[in-house]
Amino acid sequence: MMMRRRGMPLVRAAATTAVIAGTAGAVSHHQQQKWANQQASAEQQQQAAYEAGVEAAQQQAAQQQAMAQQQMAPAPAAPASPQIDMEQLKQLGDLHAAGVLTDEEFAAAKAKLLAGG
Question: Do 82 and 115 form a contact (C-beta atoms < 8 A)?
Fold first, then answer.
């Protein structure tokens, strides 16, 4: 019986060591997973921030390009005012005064001349 008493503390010590080692391994594994998740989360946040920065830079570049194109675009030309041929208008007046053109004919010819046609 004496031998049994001696053996029990040795078994108890081995069992305690196994429990401690197992617990330490489980805690270590849990901690490593936690750190890996934190690192992955940080990397995702960095990636999202990077993508947001790239998108903002692209939008800003597009706005600047649009503004530059607007500044470089020539101003729309003012419509050319029709040149009135004073000589023809004078001839029409003379023909009307001479009685060659009636009032209606003179008015139609004058309107056509002033319209640029």
Answer: yes
